Amino acid sequence: MIKLTDIHKSYEMGSNKLHVLKGIDLDIHQGEFVSIMGSSGSGKSTLLNILGILDNYDQGSYHLGGKLISNMTEKKAAQLRNEMVGFVFQSFNLISFKNAMENVALPLYYKGVNRKKRNMIAMEYLDRLGLKPWAEHMPNEMSGGQKQRVAIARALISKPQIILADEPTGALDTSTSYEVMEILREINDAGITVIIVTHEHDIASMTQKIVRLKDGRIDEVILNGELADFRERYSKELQPV
Amino acid sequence: MFDLDLWKEILSALKQNRMRSFMTAFGVFWGIFMLIIMSGAGRALENGVLEGVKSFATNSAFFWTERTSVPFEGFQRGRRWDYDNQDIEYIRQNVREVEYLSPRLFGWQQDGDNTVRGERTGAFNIYGDYPDYFKIDGWTPIKGRLMNEIDVREKRKVCVIGERVVEVMFAKDEDPIGQYLKISGVYFQVVGVIHPETKINIGGGKKEETIIIPFTTMQTAYNYGNVIHFFSVTAKKGHSVSDLQDKLKTILKERHKIAPDDLQAVGSFNIEAEFIKFNALFTGIQVLTWIVGIGTLFAGIIGVSNIMLVIIKERTQEIGIQRAIGATPGKIITHIVAESVFLTVMAGYVGLSLGVGLLELLSMALEAGGEELFFRNPQVDLKMALSALAVLVISGMFAGLIPAKRAINIKPIDALRDEG
């Protein structure tokens, strides 16, 4: 599904060059539930951006669904994003002057689906996430958890193969975080690959595979079976707050 | 294609920033408003002036005499002289470029009350004219008739009079036609009341205070002998009146023993040259109007562009989201440009309407104010309104295009990261 080979990425910061990713090799298969962890500056957001075709890379190769992603025109990238990838952000990133239903329907608008049809589909997705009564509400009339669920509905509506979530629980309290994670797990159960970036160990431990980044390299990959070990190692941090 | 979502987005974006949208739109509004008002006012001045001269023959020249300024063939400088009937005869026969030639005698108003009827008296401008005069400076008979060839040939004692003369010399319900006026001691029958078609006035005084009698009658009745005070000519089609003017000057100087280099003795005035000056003036006004108007408009457009840049800056994140979930650069550009064009055109439309409305009001006020003003019928032609609108749409597009390009150049990732 996703195949990264020796990915390098650096940013120019004035005269300095910041080497963020120093050779990432990563395979993620269809239907996996992966979390990317790492301290700030370890390159996890950059990696996610490259995965989401929001950013390009300097070296190496990135195959998404068998297709080499490199040097795309912005138009092509936008179409690919629309078809393949659904995004969920820490700050929800809903459009403030559109109501919940319109926000969810937006990706279909860019696909050229007519208004009636896309609003109908949007209602279906809102219903699935239990937000039907809030369809007409504006983002500022909803709680954080509700907003994140709207964002998830929006990510799902274009039937993507991958959901990329950047700190999806970063702005939520613990119980709401768990709810959101539950939703993401259900999505994953339906066969969609879910990749989240997080720095919270308890959140990461709910996924099947944890990729730990350190200084632009993959430090360790913890698979499902080793999660017990992982839990033990980070038991202190996993204590309920 | 009508895209409801696009318009919804544009409207909500503008509504969110009511004050800013308004201030921006005001720049464009003001530009187009000024352009319309100035252009309309310029046009009104042109209309007013041209209205006042429209039926005046533009290919005409006028001649009078001044004292000589150069001694010649034994004559000292400062000699007084006059045109005479032979001059006219000579010109008629020898100068083929002349179309109409109308000699004139003046009976001066300064002589005091020169016109008497019973107990009524008045001081008027008395002119002895040929009917050809009406071909050069148009008058309309509002009662009776104009003076004609037979009046001149038979030296009839008839006169046509201006409206003011009627007011002074006749009671309100009296019909002046057929009545007699005693003009400087001689009785003349009124055959017509005439109204001036132009505001150009030769000889001073108000045109409505004019009494015109046959030239021949005047020459005989008041003992002018052979003398002519003044004459007007028009050039035939295809001949320049300025050339004709020079030619006649030379002829007249020769006939009256005036030095060829005497610039003063033959007084003359060429209306063609004045018309050219007028036209240049109006062209100048129009050009100036456009320069200032376009300049103001341009400032407004830059304002729009500037505001669009700010809007883009503020909405960087929003644009980032849109692009992350699949909006192509084309969509984003369309959106921004449409917003800019919408703002510009709305503002321009209001400016256009208000400008035209104000001109209409002004026009109505002027109409009520009578015809004394050299300012009439301020109007904006459709062509101008349409070209202004085209300028607005195109400039609106440009105003949007620059910020749109910038929005596209920001990578979605940078846009999303810009979370302030």
Keywords:
heterodimer, A: about 240 residues, alpha/beta, Rossmann fold, four-stranded antiparallel sheet, B: about 425 residues, alpha+beta, twelve-stranded mixed sheet, two-stranded antiparallel ribbon
Could you explain how this protein is built, in words?
The complex is a heterodimer of chains A (241) and B (420). With 241 residues, chain A is of the alpha/beta class. Chain A is built from nine helices and ten strands. In chain A, helix 3 crosses helix 4. Chain A starts with a strand and ends with a helix. Chain B has helices spanning 4-16, 18-53, 85-94, 133-136, 149-153, 163-169, 215-221, 241-255, 271-314, 316-324, 329-368, 382-409, 412-417, and strands at 60-65, 83-84, 98-107, 115-117, 120-122, 125-129, 139-144, 158-162, 180-183, 186-196, 210-214, 227-228, 230-235, 266-270. Chain B folds into two domains: 4-54 and 276-417, no CATH class; 103-220, no CATH class. In chain B, helix 9 (271-314) packs across helix 10 (316-324). Chain B is of the alpha+beta class and 420 residues long. The two termini of chain B are 36 Å apart. The chains are: A alpha/beta (241), B alpha+beta (420). Chains A and B meet through helix 2 and helix 3 of A and helix 1, helix 10, helix 11 and helix 13 of B.
Topology, element by element:
The complex is a heterodimer of chains A (241) and B (420).
Chain A (H helix, E strand, L loop, with lengths): L1 E12 L2 E13 L4 E5 L6 H8 L7 E6 L2 E2 L5 H11 E4 L11 H12 L3 H14 L15 H14 L4 E5 L7 H16 L3 E5 L3 H4 L4 E6 L2 E6 L4 H7 L1 H4 L3
Helix pairs in contact in A: 3-4, 3-5, 4-5, 5-6
Chain B lengths: L3 H13 L1 H36 L6 E6 L17 E2 H10 L3 E10 L7 E3 L2 E3 L2 E5 L3 H4 L2 E6 L4 H5 L4 E5 H7 L10 E4 L2 E11 L13 E5 H7 L5 E2 L1 E6 L5 H15 L10 E5 H44 L1 H9 L4 H40 L13 H28 L2 H6 L3
Parallel strand pairs in B: 6-11, 8-10
Antiparallel strand pairs in B: 1-13, 1-14, 2-12, 3-6, 3-13, 4-5, 4-9, 7-10, 8-11, 9-10
Helix pairs in contact in B: 1-11, 2-9, 2-11, 9-10, 9-11, 9-12, 11-12
